[in-house]
Amino acid sequence: MADIAFPSLAKSTKLPNGTIYTYVHVLPKGSKPYLLLLHGWPSSSYDWRHQISYFQDRGYGLIVPDLLGYGGTDKPMEKEAYRLKKMSEEVIGILDAEGVKGCVGVAHDWGSTFLSRLATYYPDRFTKFCWIDVGYNVPTGEEFSIDAVDEMAKKIIGWPIFGYWHFFNDEDAGPLMDRNHECINSLIFPHNYAWMRDNMCYPNVTRSYLEEQKTGPIAPWISKEEMAMHNYILAAKDGGYGPTLMWYKCQIANLNRPDEEEIPEEKKQIKQPTLMIAAKYDYIGVPKLEVGGMQPYVKDLKVVEFETGHWVQLEMPMETSKAMEDFLEGK
Questions:
Q1: Which end of the chain is more exposed for a tag (fewer CB within 10 A), N or C?
Q2: Among 177, 209, 9, 25, which residue's Cα sits nearest to residue 99?
Q3: CA distances for 1 relative to 72, 74, 178, 205, angstroms
Q4: What is the CB-side half-sphere exposure of residue 21 using CA atoms within 13 A?
Q5: DSSP letter string, 126-174
C-alpha cells in the first residue's frame, strides 16, 4: 500500500475512465531512466521495498503502482475490470500523467504476465525489460485452460503447477483467506520451498489446507514487522483477498482472449534487451518452463538464476537489485 508503506513518495491519480491508482513516484536524477515495477499476487508496491530504496539512492526514477485490486488502488469486483489490455491502458495512463515517455519494465509473478501484455500493446514505451521468477508470457489468443497448463507441466517437469487456480476461482476463496491469514501466509511464504508445491500445485489441496487451518514455518527472510504490514495491506476491512483473485477469475473466464486474438505476430517478439532472473527452487515459476517459454520470442535475453524460492526480490534483495543494476548499466 503505497500511501501507508511509503507516505513521502506516494501519489494517487484518477484516470480518464474514473479508476483511481495509488503509486510510488520518485523523480530520476540526471540521465537515469525510470523503472516501472509491477508486483504480483498477493501483494502491493510494498513487495518492492528493497528495490525502491536501492534504486532511489542511485538516482533512478521509479513508478511503483498498487495494481488494480490492491493497496490504495481501486478494488472492483467485476472480472471484466481486470482484463490485461484495460489495465495496460490504465498503467500507461499513470506514465502519461507523470510525463514518463520511456521506461524499463520490471515485474514479478502476476506482474510478469501483466508486463508481457504491456510489452505487446505498448512496445514503444519500454527501453528494456526485466522479468523476475515468471517470464515473458506470449499471447497466443487460444482458450486458457488450467487443466491444459497442468498437463503440459506434468509432461515437462513431473507435477502440475496451477492446481490452486481452481480454488481461487471459487466464490468463497477470498473470504476463506480473509479468515485465515496465518494459514495463507504459511503457504505463500514457506520456510520449505517444496511446501508451496505440495500444498498449492495439486488440485483441492489449497482449499483443504485453509479449511483445516493448517500452518507451517514461515521463511526466515520476512520479519514479523514485514508480515504485519503485509496482513494490514490485505485486511478484510480494506477489501481483503477477494479483489486480488479477480486477476485469476478474469483469465479463467477467457476474458483476455478476444484482445489477444488481435495481437499481430510481429508484436509478440520482444526486441528490447531483456533480463530474466529465475528462481531455482520455485515449484510454480519453474526456470525450465519460464526461460524455455521466453527463448523463442526474446532475442536479446540474459538469464540469471538465484537459489531462491518464489519471492526472489525479497529473499535475496541485494543480489536481485545488483543484477538489475548491472543489466541497466550494460555490465
A1: C
A2: 25
A3: 6, 12, 17, 30
A4: 26
A5: EEEEEEESS-------SPP-HHHHHHHHHHHTSS-S-HHHHHHTSTTHH
Cell 484482445 belongs to residue = 259
**Is residue 253 classed exposed, middle or buried when 0-12, 13-18 and 19+ CB atoms within 10 A define those classes?**
middle
DSSP annotation string for 233-275: HT-GGGTTTTGGGHHHHHHHTT-SHHHHHTS-GGGGSB-S-EE
**Which residues are CB-contacts of 140 (< 8 A; sequence separation ≥ 6)?**
260
Amino acid at 245: L
Radius of gyration of the chain (CA): 18
Whole-angstrom distance, CA of residue 104 vs CA of residue 136: 14
- Give CA separation, 187 vs 29, 168, 183, 308, in Å: 40, 14, 7, 16
Amino acid identity, residue 289? L
**Would you state the pLDDT for residue 73?**
97
Q: Yes or no: say if 64 and 37 are a contact pair by the CB < 8 Å rule.
A: yes
d(CA 90, CA 96): 10
Tally of residues, the chain: 331
Distance CA 235, CA 133 (A): 26
- What is the C-alpha separation between 154 and 157, in angstroms, rounded? 5
Query: What's the pTM value of the predicted model, to 2 decimals?
Result: 0.97
Q: List C-alpha distances in Å: 129 to 74, 186, 219, 260, 291.
A: 26, 31, 28, 20, 14
Residue appearing with cell numbers 519453474: 286
Distance CA 168, CA 210 (A): 12
* Rounded CA separation 319/323 (Å): 6
**Averaged pLDDT in 10-residue chunks for the chain of 331 residues:** 81 96 97 97 96 98 98 97 98 97 98 98 98 97 96 97 98 97 97 96 97 97 96 94 98 98 94 98 97 96 98 98 97 79
